[in-house]
Amino acid sequence: MLWLILFPLTVTLPTAVLFHLLPAWRTGTYFAVRVASDFRDSSEGGDVLVQYRRINAILFAIGTALMAFGVAGKLPWILVPGSLIQPLGMMAATYIARKQVWPHRQTPQTQRVAELAIEDPLPVWTFPLWILPPMILGGAAWYISQHWNSIPDTFPVHWGLDNQPNGWEHKSFKGVYGSLITAASTMILLYGAAVLILFGARRGVGEIRLIRASLTSLLGIMTSVSLLMAVIALGPVSSQPNSSPLSTSFALALPVGLIAISLLPMWFVRKDAADNADSTPDECWSMGNLYSNPDDPALMVRNRLGFGYSPNFGHPVAKFAFLLMFAQLIAVLVYVA
Length: 337
What we know:
The chain is mostly helical. It has helices at 2-25, 43-72, 79-101, 132-146, 173-200, 208-233, 248-268, 270-275, 316-336, and strands at 29-30, 33-34, 154-159, 165-170, 285-286, 290-291, 300-302, 309-311. The chain is built from 9 helices and 8 strands. Strand 1 (29-30) and strand 2 (33-34) form a beta hairpin.
């Protein structure tokens, strides 16, 4: 009974809390629209927020119920729509809220954005930390190669809701190293995002700490995912290859932990984000955090909704980088599948 309650909540509750807090994370903009400072507290602004959060609560209840039904009935396929209904629904809710706020937008004052950095966004002493993810994956691959003969001819790679194996793989290069290949592909994508933020974001006064916080979040996620995938990959060479490499308590805490890792650095620089002016025009934003402005030289711009950075899809380099990373991800997934 406890598993029936806790498992759905570990997936849906962090998502619900995140969407609940997103509109209040940034000041100066409201649902990705630049508004007057007192609009949030007005009756019109309050009504928009109430409707947005009401939709969030309804979707949270529906998603949790679907996932609980899937766990109780041992129907794993229901877990997919149960976990996706809230983020997809809240994308639509954000679009609706933005349309409601749009008539109240304010024309920004023309301002010059300083591009001179006063401090390094990536200190030299942090360089060794950035090689941790590939070292973790490489170490796992080396250990597996040294114990290749101890790997059984078939071994489980997937476990059901009852913690019993229900998916098996043969002893082969792809079967044994598939999880590490997928992890390496993910690392390439995240390293690419880090490079775009480091060299493509504006470095005006107040921006450096925001860039550093975003890079810290990426590094924390990369290191955590590398450790997770290394543990999974080492399953076939463990003393109990038929047992799930992840405990129930760890699986329950994983979604919350990854969200906390990504949010914590941003929380410490939230004042910098509020005080630092946003020079991007409202008309170039869509769906909250999709930005396209061919006249903007920046490759990456700060998100209007929430935290972090988004690509400028109007920049030719950003378009090429996105297509390249997407093609790389698809190629790896097709190979591993």
